[in-house]
Amino acid sequence: MLDNIRSVLNVGALFRTCDGAGFEKIILTGFTPTPPRKEISKTAIGAENFVAWEYFKDPIFCLKNLQSLGYKIFVLEQTPKSIDFHRMSEWRHENICLVLGNEIGGVQREIIDIADYCVEIPMLGQKQSLNVATAGGICMYQFL
Q: Can you list the domains of the chain with their CATH numbers?
């Protein structure tokens, strides 16, 4: 799930990574740009035509519905309860939803509150975060 992602290029890159990592669908929420857009195609290189996607204005409604269907919600965000993303492979679930948030503000508090797990990528340098498309790709492949 991409919630309030502002960069069209990040959306395209995440379509391409979802295709490469074998994720079946991208859920776009809030003000996240949706296909068709040439800027998405520029970084997706056509993956937006192969990866199914849906748009929901309200991410909470969508996530609660996914939970009722047995999905586990993983939020990529730095919180006091976040676990190291390396441990994600300990939780083998067929049905997962990885939530990536806004490039500046991160994942909304309401989403964090209903998530099953919060995970973070340890940062060893001066910066405290990675680009959302990069971080999302790292986590997607960790599930493999």
A: 2-143 (3.40.1280.10)
* Percent helix, percent strand, percent coil in the chain, to nearest 5: 40, 20, 40
Which residues partner with 78 through β-bridges?
Answer: none
DSSP-derived secondary structure for 20-78: HHT--EEEEETT---SS-HHHHHHHTTGGGTSEEEEES-HHHHHHHHHHTTPEEEEE--
- 2 within 8 A of 31, measured Cβ to Cβ: no
pLDDT above 90 covers a percentage of the chain that reads 84
Phi and psi, residue 93, nearest 5°: -125, 140
pTM of the prediction? 0.94
